[in-house]
Write the structure tokens for this entry.
Amino acid sequence: MLRMLAGNFVKPLLFFVALLFARLVAAHHSTAIYDSEHPVELAGKVVEWKFTNPHCIIVMDVVAADGSVQRWNVEGGNTSGLFRNGWTPQTLQPGDEIIVTVRPLRSGAFGGNYSNPRRSNGEPVIAQTAARGR
Amino acid sequence: MPMLSIRQHSKPFPLLSLLSALATACSFSAAANAASDQTATYPDWSGQWERIGSLNWPPEGYDKAGPAPLTPEYQAIYEQNLALRADGILAGDPPATCLPPGMPRMMKMSFPMEIIITPGITYIYADWESQIRRVYTDGRDWPDYILPEFNGYSIGSWRDDNKDGSVDTLAIETRGIKGPRSIDSTGVVLHENNETVVFEEIHQVDANTLENRITTIDDAFTGPWTINQQYNHVTENIVWVEYVCAEGNRHIQLGNEWYFLNDELGILEPTREGQPALVPATP
């Protein structure tokens, strides 16, 4: 019973979060050049958070399975959408440990398009109550 | 009919000209005669307007509206663009490299819009790319030569459709539009001859909703393509955010090759499988 309740609650919530993020990232250009078929979960440390357009960019270091450090450049939402939802240039700081879902470049280079940014404990980076503007 | 006389300034495309005239003659016959009225009472469209509906050109999305009415030639180009994208090349979406969306795509309003009405010019500001359109409502005729620009050259006129003594509808014709342009981000591009003509009729449908009936005439399409794009009124806690695309753009096109800028390493990363990175030669 509990499991059913949790399922009923979580699924719409996840759908809402997915919709919200889709709205944030969709504006600038098609993301069809990224490999949506093979998304990767990247956990790593923020090197730089660039609050810029057309996309805000996270530069992050990810330790690969072989121990080497991969430096990824991933782009996501834009300043307009993110600022309205509570993000600022100070939201991510160097050293912050985060997890993002990345649709990578098809070339294998360490770049791509990110979604669903989380703190390393799984919490959202910004609570949705922080929205400003309408 | 000054609004339709511009044909003499551009290469004719007779079938579409005829369709254009038929589709719009009724609604624009009054507009053609409307000189600037310095005493008109204009609607209050201040505040912020944000897009309602899909980022696909049809507000209800292609899933419901059906595919774009492309000619066989441009259907083939669309399909080629999809194939290139699957290979890592961002074909058919010029704003991906920071070109402005131009007309009519800018009226999709990926980001919010502001409308500033003055007696002779109505300014339409789009937060995306911080673009501005000037719609001349001072009764002018088309200039002898229109310098092509992404947002085109727009002549408008105000109408009092509900006959209450105050104008309520802004009718606009836009020509002289520069390319390359796409209708949206899905790979549907406008014809490379850049002879697009766009007719718009903007009016408020209720207290919170503005509607723009946009008819696009372009040789990539089998006929005039009309959508009713609506915008929701934002009146409180309005936020505008500057948009400078060059600041963080990562997508670089060199000829037919696309790259992803890695400014930390000072190289252009490949976007497709088997493509080498572009690394500057060291002196």
Remarks:
- Residues 1-35 of chain B have pLDDT under 50 and may be disordered.
- The longest strand of chain B covers residues 197-206.
- Chain B is about 15% helix and 30% strand.
